[in-house]
Design a protein that fits this description.
This protein has about 1100 residues and is α+β, with helices and mostly antiparallel strands. Among the domains are: about 180 residues, Sandwich (Jelly Rolls); about 350 residues, 6 Propeller (Neuraminidase), CATH 2.120.10.30; about 100 residues. It has 31 helices and 42 strands. The strands form 10 sheets. A 6-stranded antiparallel beta sheet has the order 19-20-21-22-25-26, with no helix packed on it. It has a 5-stranded antiparallel beta sheet with strand order 1-8-5-10-3, covered by helices on one side. It has a 5-stranded antiparallel beta sheet with strand order 2-4-9-6-7, with no helix packed on it. Strand 27 and strand 28 form a beta hairpin. It is globular, with a radius of gyration of 33 Å. It starts with 20 loop residues before the first strand and ends with a helix.
Length: about 1100
């Protein structure tokens, strides 16, 4: 039933609404240049405020509707209906009012508003599909059920002209709708306030305002300004701030897929799905990766060596051929019967690409017997062979994108000397992402700074994410990364102390063991047509998760991960063109071969699944392939594209260009056509891409620049001048990367890269700075720093300069620091100079192990030709009264700049507690603490109220000392280490340094004396150290004999405390040489019963460990 309501401001206008009350405003003065900037309320009241928004049209950022800014608009295209806008409020709530502010009051918009708890199943809450009148602002009073997502679906515009949505607000309490919004709904529009006048920055102490403004005697010339420039006019907020990484995991109601089948019983699925076991351990044991092949075929990598084994010749790649039902493997053949360490797989319709360190290769079956007949190498030097090391943390998954790049996930053993077929080389210290063409050309590093992503999920729109692995207590948990190019994620050298130079993950979880991932677009699975279906697996959680990912500005945001299925130790997941999901499980397995009964491959299907007709691409005509390229299924599009590119016929650029320009088609279909043109050999391809780079469609523009960046012919091309006027963040990001990929160094255009370092979006800032470093843009960066009108660019330009190790940079910074009176410049220039003191050390290919040094900013840092000049200036700067000494010492400390300043620092730290962390870092940079630092270190280590990491740092420094009192304090701290809240690697480093101290080894007799007596803490840690010495590589026979005698002495004292401490230490350390002493105590008739029982238990525990 539709209710008609009239209000004075809209007399004669009627607005239908199926649920609740609709209030509309119209008849306002359209001639106004600006619409009043209404405040729709704080986020605690307006549930949509600053929440992620996505839309089917991306000409304008969807996030503009939730930015609380009436002056920004998400435009609604006049064709291609329906257009959808979705807002994720990130929590479930009961909405009582939905407010929509329209751009054009004369345009009648027909629309419907839906709600959902999961982003998939939608309920209509507002029906305005018959609306025929306009209005500026509407308030829908609703009685919503529990919902987290709101979707506005625009079905038609009934008048000439366009419109858009300025703001969408959602309220749980109608009383919280701001009065100004209600007044606007009643036609009472406020008068626009005048623009605020710019506020000049306050002058520094001791300066006149005249000098600060650059007038009179203090006026700055063309060189470095003498003072900070005045603040510019406050910018209108155009972009939504990037949210903190999501930490939310949404539980799902899962049920066993079967009670009868023992394997299927271990698979848990949600309502609406069913599962089948395609093959068990006897056919596909130890599966590491899966990849869908032709219709009804599945490839499976099998490696009984797992992460730690090193036996040759036991790996293989299986090919499963499904039966007529498509739900069970009728036949399993060895596609590659013998291959060491098989990992990632990718299939392009003809070739199977396989990652198997130390290479990536391609294989195909020519005679059709199911076994590969031909292979070719694409990349050599991809990690280590099995003779050198096992397969963990090496090269992992492969993913083929619609842009024709094979994306390779690389663990943190890295790549020392990888080389493609064309001679291109890649070197990657640590984990990251590399890319290479399917013919082995164009090898390059794409992203850096990760630990061990098992597989990168590549979307049809070329977004990339990966689930990373924890470093087991070292502060790096389980992040979900977005990979965008020229991005550094911080591991291991940046994330702790140099986080400003790393990009944040989109989500972060406490623990787990990350494995495979997939990103697919298929109407059977992805009903919302938003970002596609994103899945990641976690071996440690026994789960496969579905991710709620939304586009925001230049990157992605995630609201939550949702449990999708439960399955034992999942290793990988993939979907085929028929909409079937495949999950590999390491059921019953461990990190190495255990027995034959390990692993299976399951298939997951929606209950409404039906077989699709999948073409034989190799036999399809060009027109048929072009039609398949328009499929709504991403897997079908990819295989059709590869067939087109393999065809002997030329790529039909004209027909493909028509697809690209067709705004009625989904963006992913248009991009498939664009990148088919880009990969073809047509002479007209480049001209077409340059035309697409001028498109009004943001998605097409961004994709065109991405494709142009792959062409060396584009170096210094005029098209890059568009960076100066481009406003859309995704396009800006792609232009930046294209300029770096083509090594475009034209100074006028590089100037605009510097400008992007001040962009609101941190991903744009991050990319721009890394591009400047890659281009070694010294001159352009200094030009920005020397211009007081470009003050907003100073921090970014100086961050870039701080990573370019050239003497021109060092001398340029120092000369400007000597002249500058700008506190802003001094701060960032000093940071840059301290950062330049060290550089990345030479790397011979060795691993950094499971707990690498995280102190940064470089791993294996070493000094260089500019280090002495930097140290000399920074030491002198400590006496400069204009410089904040505490700040500079902090920067010198975190960058490991060590001129001889510790004595003066120790004299100040007593009255400046903020200097304590940097002071401890300075001391830890030395092999042994100086004597005058011991009182300070003892004070920190013994203070139970201090931060745990600070205490452990001080104790670590004491552990390196030869002073007996310092060592005793270190040992007493170690005795209570379990009670100290500090990072595990810091604790491990503390004990490592304690045991490495020769003074500890030489004072073993003192340790034996400490084991008896009233000092319980000292006695316990003394036993631990003695047992470590006893089992060490450099222990002498005499030392062992005296430690054994010390155990007997403690047992014979007869004192309960001494005997109990000894027995506890033997059990805790699993110290087998203590078994005889424990047995003697158990059999002693003079011991009390309680002690004898403890001794008996100690003997029993030692035997069980053998």
């Amino acid at each position: 039933m539709t209710e008609m309501i009239r209000f004075p401001a809209c007399t004669g206008r009627k607005f239908p609404c199926a649920i609740g009350l609709l209030i509309a405003v119209s008849g306002l003065d359209n001639a106004r240049a600006e619409f009043p900037d209404l405040d729709f309320g704080r986020g605690v009241y307006n549930a949509a405020r600053e929440k992620p928004a996505t839309a089917t049209s991306n000409e304008d950022a969807a996030s503009r509707v939730t930015d609380n800014d009436s002056k920004t608009t998400w435009k609604i295209p006049g064709t291609g209906f329906p257009h959808r806008l979705k807002v994720n409020m990130r929590r479930e709530l009961s909405a009582k009012a939905v407010v929509i502010q329209w751009e054009n009051p004369d345009q009648a918009v027909q629309y419907e508003v839906f709600e959902s708890t999961n982003g998939t199943d939608w309920r209509s809450m507002i029906d305005a599909k018959s609306n025929e009148k306009g209005g500026h602002l509407v308030i829908h009073e609703v009685d919503s059920k529990r919902s987290q997502y709101i979707r506005v679906e625009v079905t038609a515009l009934t008048q000439d002209g366009d419109t858009g949505i300025r703001e969408l607000a959602v309220y749980e309490d109608r009383a919280r709708i701001p009065k100004a919004v209600k007044d606007a709904a009643a036609g009472k529009m406020p008068v626009l306030p005048p623009d605020p006048k710019p506020e000049p920055e306050p002058p520094e102490k001791g300066k006149s305002k005249t000098m600060e403004k650059g007038k009179g005697k203090g006026k700055a010339g063309k060189g470095q300004p003498k003072g900070d420039a005045p603040k510019s006019k406050p910018e209108k907020k155009e972009y939504e701030p990037r949210p903190a990484p999501s930490t939310i995991t949404k539980k799902s109601e899962l049920r066993p897929a079967s009670q009868a089948d023992p394997l299927l019983k271990t698979v848990e699925i949600p309502e609406g799905f069913e599962a089948f076991i395609l093959a068990g351990p006897e056919r596909v044991g130890y599966p590491t990766f899966v990849k869908a092949g032709r219709s009804g075929e599945l490839f499976v990598s099998c490696d009984p060596n797992g992460a730690l084994g090193r036996r040759k010749g036991i790996g293989s790649v299986k090919k499963l051929i499904l039966d007529q039902s498509g739900r069970k493997a009728a036949k399993v053949v060895d596609f590659i019967p013998e291959i060491d360490t098989p990992r990632g797989l990718e299939w392009d319709g003809e070739w199977l690409y396989v990652a198997h360190p130390p290479k990536i290769s391609a294989w195909r079956d020519i005679d059709g017997d199911g076994v590969a007949d031909e292979s070719r190498s694409l990349v050599m030097g991809m990690g280590s062979s099995i003779e050198q090391r096992p397969g963990d943390h090496g090269i992992n998954g492969l993913s083929l994108g619609i842009d024709g790049w094979l994306t390779v996930a690389v663990g943190d053993y890295g790549l020392k000397d990888a080389q493609g077929e064309d001679g291109a080389k890649a070197r990657l210290r640590g984990g990251g992402v590399i890319r290479v063409r399917p013919d082995g050309t164009g090898l390059h590093v794409f992203s850096r700074g990760i630990r061990n992503v098992y597989e990168v999920a590549v979307s049809p729109r070329l977004w990339m994410i990966g689930r990373d692995n924890t470093n087991d207590g070292g502060g790096w948990d389980v992040p979900i990364h977005q990979f965008s190019g020229y991005d550094h994620h911080g591991y291991p050298s940046l994330f702790r102390k140099f986080a400003e130079d790393a990009i944040l993950p989109i989500a972060l979880y406490e623990d787990g063991i990350a494995t495979g991932s997939a990103w697919v677009e298929d109407p059977l699975w992805d009903k919302d047509e938003a970002a596609g279906l994103v899945l990641t697996a976690d071996w440690g959680k026994n789960r496969v998760y579905r991710h709620e990912v939304d586009e925001q500005e230049a990157g992605l945001v995630q609201s939550e991960q949702i449990e999708w299925i439960g399955i034992p130790k999942p290793t990988d997941i993939d979907l085929d063109g028929m909409g079937r999901a495949y999950v590999a499980s390491w059921h019953n397995g461990d990190y190495d071969f255990t027995d034959q009964d390990v692993g299976f491959v399951a298939q997951i299907l929606p209950k409404n699944w039906k077989k699709r007709e999948i073409p034989n691409y190799s036999e399809s005509e060009t027109d048929d392939l072009l039609q398949h390229l328009r499929s709504p299924v991403s897997r079908i599009r990819l295989l059709a594209q590869r067939a087109l590119l393999r065809s002997e016929d030329p790529v039909p650029v004209g027909k493909l260009a028509e697809t690209v320009k067709d705004a009625e088609l989904a963006p992913s279909i248009r991009l498939a056509a664009l990148f088919t043109i880009a990969q073809g050999e047509s002479n007209s391809a480049e001209a077409a891409l340059l035309q697409f780079a001028k498109s009004k469609d943001e998605i097409v523009r961004a994709a065109a620049f991405r494709a142009l960046g792959d062409r060396s012919s584009m170096t210094d091309h005029l098209i890059f001048k568009d960076l100066a006027t481009e406003k859309r963040p995704t396009v800006i990001r792609e232009i930046l990367i294209a300029m770096a990929r083509t090594q475009t160094r034209e100074s006028d255009w590089v100037t605009h890269i510097v400008k992007q370092t001040a962009h609101r979006d941190p991903l744009i800032q991050h990319t721009a700075i890394n591009v400047l470093v890659d281009l070694k843009a010294v001159r352009s960066s200094f030009r920005a720093v020397d211009n007081k009108d470009r003050i907003r660019e100073w921090p970014g330009a100086l961050r870039a300069l701080g990573q370019i190790h050239e003497m021109t940079v060092v001398n340029g910074l120092i000369s400007r620091l000597k002249k500058s009176d700008s506190s802003l410049f001094r701060k960032h220039a000093l940071k840059a100079l301290a950062r330049l003191y060290n550089r990345e050390g030479d790397w011979a290919g060795e691993s950094w192990g499971m707990s690498p040094d995280t102190s940064g900013p470089f791993y294996g840092r070493e000094t260089w030709a500019g280090s002495s000049t930097i140290a000399s200036y920074l030491k002198s700067a400590l006496n400069d009264k204009r410089i904040d000494k505490t700040f500079l010492l902090g920067e010198m400390s975190r960058n490991h700049v060590q001129p001889d300043t510790l004595r003066s620092v120790l004299s100040e730290v007593a009255v400046k507690p903020a200097m304590e962390p940097s002071t401890i870092d300075m001391i830890l940079a030395r092999p042994e603490p100086p004597a005058d630092a011991l009182p300070f270190l003892t004070f920190i280590a013994s203070d139970t109220g201090r931060d745990g990491n600070l205490r452990v740092g001080a104790a670590t420094a004491l552990a390196r000392s030869k002073d007996p009192m310092a060592l005793e304090m270190a040992m007493e701290t170690w005795a209570v280490i379990d009670e100290i809240d500090a990072l595990q690697p810091k604790k491990e480093k503390f004990f490592e340094d304690l045991m490495a101290n020769p003074a500890v080894q030489n004072q073993y007799r003192d340790l034996i004396e400490n084991t008896v007596g009233p000092n319980d803490l000292l006695a316990r840690v003394s036993w631990q150290l003695l047992f470590e010495i006893y089992e060490g590589d450099h222990v002498s026979n005499l030392q062992q004999q005296e430690i054994e005698a010390g155990m007997k002495r403690a047992a014979l004292t007869g004192k309960k405390r001494d005997v109990q401490r000894l027995l506890e230490a033997i059990r805790k350390h699993k110290f087998d040489p203590g078994a005889d002493v424990a047995l003697q105590i158990a059999e002693s008739e003079t011991m009390v019963e309680e002690i004898r029982k403890q001794a008996t238990e100690t003997v029993r525990s030692l035997k069980s460990n053998q």
